[in-house]
Write a structure and sequence with these properties.
Layout: H1 4-33, E1 43-44, E2 50-55, E3 60-61, E4 67-75, E5 80-86, E6 92-97, E7 103-107, E8 117-122, E9 127-135, E10 142-151, H2 154-157, H3 159-162
Length: about 170
């Protein structure tokens, strides 16, 4: 008969290999679901700060029945942004995420009463941010347009207004 002490040691020895086998199986399955073993890597937003793309069932599952697609953008402290997301195919939600994954700002429906999204925000910390395009709930997939506009402060935007404009010269002058 095995003593209780040996039974406890034997139990611990069996738990460790079983745990490692489970972790190895889960990790292998997770990597297999990623295209060619690549880990999550958001797409860079084009220099134009505009993109026409399509949200598909192969994008990031949201856990609420919908899908999401992410775009990276470098921002500076004090940047003011307007992020405009439109789609005729699904109810849009746009989210701005900090590098650590926290939500900086989010918008569901735009001020025009549509299911498009329009988000205004100011950046407090410089860094790389993620703009997440997603559908509300299970509203679907389909084409969308994303546009990011860096807004100028009123004093800088009006500098062009105060510059003297050359007047047209009259013939003979």
């Amino acid at each position: 008969m095995i003593s209780k002490g040996w039974a406890a040691v034997l139990k611990q020895v069996m738990i460790i290999p079983a745990s490692l086998l489970f972790i190895g199986t889960v990790t292998t399955a997770a990597i297999a679901q990623m295209p060619q073993g690549k880990f999550y890597n958001p797409m860079a937003l084009p220099v134009s700060n505009e993109v026409s793309d399509t949200l598909t069932e192969k994008d990031i599952p949201t856990g609420q029945g919908g899908f999401a697609r992410d775009y990276m953008l470098k921002l500076n402290k004090g940047d003011s942004l307007a992020i405009d997301l439109t789609s005729e195919s699904f109810d849009c939600i746009v989210t701005l995420l900090a590098a650590n994954g926290t939500t900086v700002a989010e918008n569901d429906d735009g001020p025009d009463g549509s299911t498009n999204s329009l988000l205004f925000t100011r950046i407090n910390q410089p860094g790389t941010y993620v703009i997440r395009v997603r559908s509300f709930g299970e509203t679907g997939v389909g084409p969308f347009k994303l546009r990011v506009t860096r807004l100028l402060p009123a004093d800088k935007a009006c500098e062009a207004c105060t510059q003297p404009v050359a007047s047209p010269q009259k013939k003979g002058d």
